[in-house]
Amino acid sequence: MENATITRPAVLILLGPPGAGKGTQARMLEESFGLVQLSTGDLLRAAVAAGTEAGQQAKAVMEAGGLVSDDIVLAILRDRMAEPDTGKGVILDGFPRTAGQAEALDGLLAQAGLSVTSVISMEVDDAAMIARVAGRYTCAGCGEGYHDEFKLPATAGVCDRCGGTAFKRRADDNAETAGARLTAYHAQTAPLIAYYEARGVLERIDAMSGIDTVASGLAAIVTRVSAQ
Ligand SMILES: [Zn+2]
């Protein structure tokens, strides 16, 4: 019975701090499940370019130097989710950011007979993340990436790829900045995590366990929730 496998479109939200591999995982989910990642920034730009009603409203607000309201973002999201390529489901990126927005999103989805199927929090070990980011540097000649702990050149001070001996570090790849980014992330997402946990749709996944392990964990969650 073919119909047995056709269920409602999945609405996934991936939460994770910078460096947790969210982008990579979202792309893998798009490929494996035919989901479409909807990033708020891209949606806004596309709606403005297409000149939809909501797009025109967004354009007017942005030109006046204002912040696009939740209502406009929701209208743009609603229009986008009505397009046929999102039939299998979507991964939302950049929205919601607050519990208020999450509540408004629930309202929008309910109108379409949908709901958030799963919110996946990609959990990281802060200290390990800071070490990962803080140790990064690149070859000044060819851009090859290295790491103080995890990936040193075979010969100290000589690039494996181009033989160059000059290396550089990004100013924001230091422990202090990485720590501040994580603190801001936790502060911003804590209310969202609480909101979705209370609704029984929160899943936690260990984002430190390697790209393939994380990918299979995510795939198992998506398979399970889309069969419900
Ligand atoms: Zn090099």
Distance between the termini: 16 Å
Principal-axes geometry comes out as globular
CATH class: Alpha Beta
Q: Provide the CATH architecture.
A: 3-Layer(aba) Sandwich
CATH topology name, in short, is Rossmann fold
What's the overall average pLDDT, rounded?
Answer: 90
**Percent strand:** 15-25%
Main-sheet strand order equals: 2-3-1-4-8
Bound molecules: zinc ion
H/E topology pattern: EHEHHHEHEHEEEHEH
Helix content: 40-55%
Number of helices: 8
The beta-strand count equals 8
Number of domains: 1
CATH 4th-level superfamily: P-loop containing nucleotide triphosphate hydrolases
Structural class, by secondary structure, is alpha/beta
Largest sheet: 5 strands, parallel
Family: Belongs to the adenylate kinase family.
Pfam families: ADK, ADK_lid
Protein name: Adenylate kinase
Subunit structure: Monomer.
